[in-house]
Fold each of these.
Amino acid sequence: MADTPTAPASPELDPRDFRNALGLFATGVTIVTTKTSDGEPIGLTCNSFSSVSLSPPLVLWSLSLRSPNLPNFLQATHFAINVLAHDQIPLSQRFAKPVPRKFEGIAHGFGAHGMPLLDGAAAQFECRTEARHYSGDHVIFIGQVLQYSYADRAPLGYFRGSYAAIQPVLQNS
C-alpha cells in the first residue's frame, strides 16, 4: 500500500494554512545530490531530511512529483545528503532555483560512490537508494548510509518560511 499514490487532501483543509502550521516545525536545510545518467552532478535544496534507523543506518528525504529533478533521482542508485552550515544560505538559495549547471563555480568533491559532496557542509551522508515510496504528491526516498562525515559547524535551520540559526538551549540538570 505504501507504493500506491494516496487520495488528495480533504477539501476542508486550507493548503496555505496547513503549510503555515507545518512551518512551525523547525528543520535543518540540506542539499541532496546525485548524478544524471550522463554523469552530470545535480542537486536541490531540501528540508524534508530525517533519520529512520540506526541499525541498519537509514535516512529519508522526499521530493515533489512535479520536480524537474525527479527522473534523475528515480534512476539514481546513490545520493548524498549535504547538511548545510549556518553560513551557507547563498548555496541553499542557488540550489533551490531551477538554474542549469548549479555546480559551476561551487567548491565540491566526490565521495567514494561518486556522489557530489559540497565543501563546508556541517555533515554529509553518502547513501545507496534502499527504497522509494509514493505518497501524496511526493516520493519518499530511503537511503542506506554507506559513509558519513561531519564537522564542528553550526547547522542552518529553516522555520516559518525563513532561514534560522540553530542554537543549543541550556537545560537545568
Note: The chain has a mean pLDDT of 92.
Amino acid sequence: MIQEAAAVIRKGGVIAFPTRCLYGLGADAFNPEAVDRIFKIKKRPAQKPILILIDDPVRLKRLVTTVSGTATAIMDRFWPGKVTLVFEARAEVPPYLTADSGKIGVRLPEHPVASSLVRELQGPITGTSANVSGRPGCYQIGDLPPEVTEKLDLILDAGPLKGGRGSTVVDVTGQVPQVLREGGVSIQDIIAIGGK
C-alpha cells in the first residue's frame, strides 16, 4: 500500500494518510499543481504556508539555508514527531509552500505509515491536516468531510489515531527560537534547550 501511495504522489496525486495524531493530506511538495489541489480541497487561504515532511534530516540541505546548533538540539531531542521547525527557506523552495514568507516548516514524521511513505519517496511531501481550513482535524477516516474525500486519489486508512494536540511549531530562524504554537511539546521544554 505504501508503494501504491507513493506512485500516486509521484504522478501528481493527493492522498490522505496518518500523521502523528491526525490524518493529513499528502502530495509532492515540489509539484505546484498537486499543492494547488490541496489548497483548493482545504479551501485554504494562499497566504497560509504548508508544512512539509521529510524522511531524514539530511534532506534539510535541499530546503533550508541554515541549521543552527539550537535547531539541531531540538531535532535530536524531539524528532521524529512532536515538533515542526520553521527555517529560512532556500531560494529554490517554491513560494506556494512558504506563502512568500521566505520560511518553511519541516517535520520528521513519527507515525510508521508517514515515515515509510516519505522514505519510499525520498523527497518532501505536504503534511497539512486533512480538513477544510478552519475546521477541526480528523483522527479517523470516517470523520473526513465528504468534500475532502471525494477529491482524493487515495486514502491510507491506519485506523483511529490518538488525536490530541498537533506538533509544537518553533521558528528557528533567529538567534533565539520562538514558539509559534504550543502542541505536543511544551514551551518549557523548548525553553530548556534555548528558546523563549
Note: The mean pLDDT is 93.
Amino acid sequence: MICKHCGAQIPDDSAFCTNCGSAVDITDTQTRPMNYAGYGTEKSGTNTTLIVIIIVIVTAILGGVIAFFIFRDNFIPEKKDDPQYTVTENSGSAEATAAPTNTPQPAPTQNPTVPPARSEVNTNPGNNEYMYASNIKVLSQSDLSSLTQAETRLLLNEIYARHGYIFQTREYSDYFSRKAWYTPRYTSQSDAESQFNDIELQNKNIISNYEKSRGWR
C-alpha cells in the first residue's frame, strides 16, 4: 500500500509507515485489501441476474413448444373441409385422402339386351325326376309358354300323380307307373286334391287358366 503522509510504498500488513513512521489508516479506500468482505458483491449480483434471465427465456421457449403440440390442431386447417379431400373411416379413425377429380365415367349401355327367361320345366324327366317342383314353386308364364299342349296337360296331371291319383287314361297310367316315386292311392280326383298344398293349388289353377287362354279346354 502507499502511505498517505509521505507517499512511500509500504507492506500491506504494516501498521506504521517504514519511511515516515506515521500510523497507517486501515480504512483508507485506496488500500482496501482484496479479502475485504464487500469485494466482488457487484459482480456476484450481475451473474445472478443473468442466470435468472436465461432461465426465464428457456422456460418461455419450452412452454411455447409444449403449447404448440397441444393446440396444434387449432392452427392447422382441417383437410376435411377442403373439397379436394374426402374422409374415409377405414379403421375407426378419420383419415383424409385425396379425392379423384374429373374421373371419366363409363357411358351407360343403351338398350341392353335382356336374355329370355329360362323355363324350369323339365320336359324329359328321368325315372326319379319330376317335370317341375310344383309343390314348392309357383309356375311362371315363361315356364308354360315353351310347352306343347300335351306337355302342359302332363304337367297338370303330375300334380295329381304326386299324391297317388290312379289315372283312368291308359296314356297317363302307363307314364306315371314307370316313375319310381309314383304310389297309387286315390281313384277320386277330389281325394287327391285334398292333399294339395297352397302352392300346388295355385299351380293347378295357373295351368287350367293357361289352357283356357290357348283354347285347349
Note: The CA atoms of residues 154 and 175 lie 9 Å apart.
